[in-house]
Amino acid sequence: MNDCGQLGSFDRQGQFSSESRGYGRVPGLPKITAVATGSRYSAALDEEGRVWGWGSLSTSWALAGGIYHAEPMAPLCRPAGRSAMGLDETPHVLPVQVTGLPSVRSIDMFQNFVLAIDRDGHPWAWGYDECGVTGRDPKALAAQATFQRQPQRIEGMPSLLAVSAGVRHALFLDKNGVVWATGNDGAGQLGAMVPRHTDPRQCASSEELGADENYSEVPVKVPSLPPIVGIAAGRDRSAALDRDGHVWIWGRNR
């Protein structure tokens, strides 16, 4: 699928096509050290700590296959770029540098938001903020999902070693081996007790339209874990690897 230019490739007419056969090198990039992909967006980290992106981040989880629809969302991208949105309201077929970031050492994404850790260990996020997954200040958080165009630093955690993005939740591993989480907790994927919010517009259930789910828009510490060295977030479950090689997992079990 290349309907938003997320493959970084053109057709013979110089437009991006909705399908791509085979594979090819993405043009316009310096030497890259890490890559990450989401629903209709791709990101790359170069050796100088700069982040590059192409495709479109402004497609919500709802339009990407879920049922949650809190506000009028941007239409899906179409061939030739019609009715599409990207980081600056247009899809990017060629990589564009993400501005507003310090030097970055790692990136990750899953669906429609991007996480990054700068070289001082601070986390950053941008894209669709559904269920408070990007860790926004609750005083500034709208009553429904919003599209965060510019990277924003997530506060409230020690220096980080790793991040992992799920569909609507995120995990963070700090330098002390402690795991933190933000976003949707409808299946217990945050691993922490968070208050139930009564406004279903902010985090509607992925299983039942109109039902509300627990979520946290500020980082919460995952309790009862030994020192952790690795993390992974999925659709509605989370996993961690401890220093003794044991795997820990929580969230939906079906």
Write structural notes for this entry.
The protein is mainly β. A hairpin with a 3-residue loop joins strand 1 and strand 2. A four-stranded antiparallel β-sheet has the order 1-2-3-4, with no helix packed on it. The chain has a four-stranded antiparallel β-sheet with strand order 5-6-7-8, with no helix packed on it. The protein has a four-stranded antiparallel β-sheet with strand order 9-10-11-12, with no helix packed on it. It contains no helices and 15 strands. Helices cover 0% and strands 36% of the residues. The protein has a single domain, classed as Methylamine Dehydrogenase, Chain H (7 Propeller), CATH 2.130.10.
Task: Provide a compact summary of the structure.
This protein is mostly beta strands and 254 residues long. It has no helices and 15 strands. The chain has a 4-stranded antiparallel beta sheet with strand order 1-2-3-4, with no helix packed on it. It has a 4-stranded antiparallel beta sheet with strand order 5-6-7-8, with no helix packed on it.
